[in-house]
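Need a sequence for this fold. Nothing fancy.
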């Protein structure tokens, strides 16, 4: 079992592990999960112990992870008897591999918020902060509600794109579950299973999360181009039958230069260029459209390609996803 959230002492708020990853890589925020104190998300349980009773993280700082990130007990973490997380204590073996259900993300956010969550840091003196937590007789949720309007990001909403992607990837075998769990982005709600659309079917519907296996990543002066392996079969108005078209997305280097997670993003994409592993790309916010581009060999000729410029790197992920291989045929 994994914790869906943990209380972060210095931010006085409950964070998902994906929030923590986002903060770790954010160069505009002073945050290092290795130095932070994370505690049980159950308020009563947390307040029953001192600040030294902490949870630990798994895959909080690894840019290119394969196994599902999460919070977990340390061998010495304690919970009060009626804490809903107390039963998880059994998994506190201290050995990562001993947890049998590590490999699935069980906490499905019902909504991806398109506005980033904002954090307000508590006074930096940890001794003072700990005293406030211990001596405050009121449940901290009350204060949090009024102080943080962004509070609605917890518990079942997220603003970190990697979270719904991990839900989809790690539960890919469980088609019924993906059909059952709803996901809302903007005005559109659909089950995870249909909100995530294979890139070859992108003409079915606009505004979804498109995903596909990467064929090649090209490093140009102004941009990176991600070519997908699968093609879109499409019939133009003046044609008799469907023809296959390549699909790609462009990432502007200027966009990356100004990105708050620039270093982590460059590490992710450089790793992807060098990697021998099968990699998948997920993105939301743009739908590739048919464009005519000049042929390299014969500049007077043009050919059609489905293409889009990624506009927001927060809604773009390249990753390994071993469970998705062998999914060439058939639609989810
Ligand atoms: Zn607890």
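Here you go.
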């Amino acid at each position: 079992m994994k914790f869906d959230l943990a209380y972060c002492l210095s931010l006085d708020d409950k964070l998902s592990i994906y929030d923590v990853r986002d903060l770790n890589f954010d160069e505009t925020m002073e945050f290092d999960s290795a130095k932070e104190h994370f505690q049980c998300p159950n308020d009563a349980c947390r307040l029953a112990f001192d600040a030294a009773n902490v949870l630990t993280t798994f895959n909080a700082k690894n840019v290119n992870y394969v196994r599902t990130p999460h919070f977990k007990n340390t061998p010495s973490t304690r919970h009060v008897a009626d804490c809903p997380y107390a039963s998880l204590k059994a998994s506190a073996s201290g050995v990562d591999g001993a947890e049998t259900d590590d490999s699935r993300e069980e906490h499905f956010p019902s909504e991806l918020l398109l506005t980033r969550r904002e954090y307000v840091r508590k006074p930096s003196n940890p001794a003072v902060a700990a005293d406030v937590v211990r001596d405050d007789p009121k449940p901290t949720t009350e204060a949090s509600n009024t102080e943080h309007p962004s509070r609605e990001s917890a518990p079942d909403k997220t603003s970190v794109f990697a979270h719904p992607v991990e839900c989809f990837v790690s539960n890919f075998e469980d088609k019924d579950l993906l059909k059952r769990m709803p996901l809302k982005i903007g005005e559109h709600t659909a089950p995870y299973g249909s909100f995530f659309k294979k890139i070859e079917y992108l003409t079915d519907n606009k505004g979804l999360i498109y995903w596909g296996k990467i064929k090649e990543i090209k490093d140009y002066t102004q941009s990176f181009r991600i070519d997908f392996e699968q093609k879109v079969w499409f019939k133009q108005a003046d044609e008799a039958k469907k023809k296959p078209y390549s699909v790609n997305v462009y990432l502007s280097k200027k966009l990356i230069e100004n990105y708050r997670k620039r270093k982590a993003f460059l590490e992710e994409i450089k790793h992807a260029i060098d990697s021998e592993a099968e990699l998948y790309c997920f993105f939301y916010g743009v739908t590739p459209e048919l464009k005519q581009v000049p042929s390299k060999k014969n500049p007077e000729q043009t050919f059609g390609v489905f293409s889009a410029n990624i506009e927001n790197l927060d809604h773009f992920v390249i990753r390994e996803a071993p469970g998705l291989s062998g999914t060439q045929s058939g639609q989810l």
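For context: Confidence is low (pLDDT under 50) at residues 89-99, 128-154, 328-332.
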